[in-house]
Structures are given as structure tokens and as C-alpha cells.
Amino acid sequence: MIEAEWPGLASRAPVMDGSSPVVIFVYVEDVDAAFDRAVAAGAKILMAPQDQFWGDRTGRIMDPAGHVWTIATRIEETSAEERTNRWSAILKSKS
Predict the structure, then answer these.
(1) Phi, psi of 40 (to 5 degrees)
(2) Residues 2, 24 contacting (CB under 8 angstroms)
(3) Which of 36, 55, 64, 83 could cysteine-pair with 76, CB 3.0–4.6 Å?
(4) What's the DSSP call for residue 83?
(5) What is the DSSP-derived secondary structure letter of residue 17?
(6) Ramachandran region, residue 32 (left: φ > 0; alpha: ψ -120 to 50; beta: rest)
(7) Using an 8 Å Cβ cutoff, are 57 and 49 in contact?
(8) How far apart are the C-alpha atoms of 5 and 16, rounded to whole Å?
């Protein structure tokens, strides 16, 4: 269970400015559907779902209690060589 801060207990909520010492990373069957449900339930969009070079589609939200979540779905299996080549291409395009 992940919940909001409770006075009197030895736990505190993350800082509401979006900073958190922890990011919860979960794989789901359909990242876009899970993301849309989270936003409809009050989550703040930190990064809309997008395809990543390593083979996941990921999005990031902050829930109403301030917890930061990365939600992901594996969309393709990639080799170490493919990931290295893709990352190199990304870096090259930014220079």
C-alpha cells in the first residue's frame, strides 16, 4: 500500500514540488490505458507515454499524495548492441 502522509506515524509524503527520493517503476499490460486511468483519478502528468530506445513505452505521473510513478509496457525486446547503437544515435543527434 502506498498512501498519503498520516500525522503521528513515522512516515512522510514526498515533497509536493515533484521531488521524491523514490520513483516507483511498474510494468503494466497497457501503459497508455493505465496512464489515462491515473490522470483521470487525479495524477499529474510529468511525462506523457513515449517509446524508449531500450524497448519500453513509458510515462511518468505524480499521484495526488505526491508519489512519483513510472508506468511502462515492454513493446520490443532489444539486444545490448541495439540499445548501444540507438543511444549513440540519440547522443549524436543532440550534438
Answers:
(1) -65, -25
(2) yes
(3) 55
(4) H
(5) T
(6) alpha
(7) yes
(8) 12
Handedness of CA 13, 63, 2, 57 (dihedral sign): negative
Q: How far, rounded to the nearest angstrom, does the alpha carbon of residue 7 sit from its chain's CA centroid?
A: 28
C-alpha grid cell for residue 13? 509524503
Amino acid at 71: I
Q: Give residues with Cβ within 8 angstroms of 81, minimum separation 6.
A: none
pLDDT one digit per residue (tens) for the chain, 95 residues: 666 677 777 777 776 676 777 889 999 999 999 999 999 999 999 999 999 999 999 999 998 888 889 999 999 999 999 999 999 999 999 98
All structural domains of the chain? 23-93 (3.30.720.110)
- The reported pTM is 0.81
Residue 72 · residue 56 · CB < 8 Å: yes
d(CA 47, CA 9): 31
For residue 59, list its beta bridge partners.
71
